[in-house]
């Protein structure tokens, strides 16, 4: 196994990781960033991004991520393709193993591994992803204004996104697999009182229809067995997210869903020198701009940490 030592290791390459990289490299922290299995993160499977400030005409998700990567490279970030497969945060410097064959010790670690949307797992859902199928109403709802859409899920996210879509779309079908919703009472009340949301209980999605774009949805009532086609052009999946934090669970405090807990108003985790930003620690906002904001915070927190450690070491020498 090869090995090296770095000042700052950044794990993950979405808006949080690249923003952390821009700030860390401009602060002479010589960061090394590992991109992980999906370089660029969730935005690379989105088409148009219209809500990221600074792009008045909108931008394609993959292009924006390439821009962020280029910006991080310009200031000297060492960006590498590879996946951190194991970590050991039990002593300082922290240890990370990349692709099971390269060991890195790091004075500071910034975790920006993001989260992945859960999908139903239908082949047609994958095939039409980004062409009418979306896991983010706030990102993509605007493209369906005035149209009929469906959303699957019955938690707070689905209820919130159904309400968001109801303000834009002509009609929103909400597909609930059981005979009741999981969402909080207040959120349930909101969707039930919206005149253009129709809730279909005991309903499963069988197939997303359409060749190039979504043209309908085949659904089935699990009680009666009746199948029907919903005439929709958009299909939103809101059945939860999973933070990509499994490799850290032996060391970092997390909530019950696996989101990393950080100290209020900072990106500090329970381990000194380890910082978390982006969707790996945020199950509320989950936006590119908020991820970028916390990426900036993580780099500033890491820089302060490194300065403090350096000062303590100098005091020990003198
Ligand atoms: P949840 O895990 O709470 O809900 C997921 C929903 O998706 C459930 O209703 C579940 O159904 C349904 N589901 C799961 N798999 C399938 C499937 N294969 N087919 C159909 N339906 C499926 O996730 P959320 O993202 O909604 O929320 C995550 C956390 O974030 C929660 O704690 C929530 O309260 C919180 N949150 C809070 C908000 C707020 O306070 N404003 C806003 C958004 C989220 P079933 O019920 O049958 O299991």
From TrEMBL:
Keywords recorded for this protein, A-Z: FAD, Flavoprotein, Oxidoreductase, Redox-active center
GO terms under cellular component: cytoplasm
Its EC number(s): 1.8.1.9
Ranges of residues in domain FAD/NAD(P)-binding: 7-295
MF terms (GO), sorted A to Z: thioredoxin-disulfide reductase (NADPH) activity
Swiss-Prot/TrEMBL cofactor(s): FAD
Gene3D superfamilies in alphabetical order: FAD/NAD(P)-binding domain (3.50.50.60)
GO terms for biological process, alphabetical: removal of superoxide radicals
InterPro entries referenced in this protein's UniProt entry, alphabetically: FAD/NAD-bd_sf (IPR036188), FAD/NAD-binding_dom (IPR023753), Ferredoxin-NADP_redctase_2 (IPR050097), Thioredox_Rdtase (IPR005982)
Reaction catalysis annotation: [thioredoxin]-dithiol + NADP(+) = [thioredoxin]-disulfide + NADPH + H(+)
Pfam assignment, any one: Pyr_redox_2
Top-rank EC class of the record's enzyme: oxidoreductase
Family, similarity comment: Belongs to the class-II pyridine nucleotide-disulfide oxidoreductase family.
Quaternary structure (record): Homodimer.
Protein name: Thioredoxin reductase
Organism: Spirosoma terrae
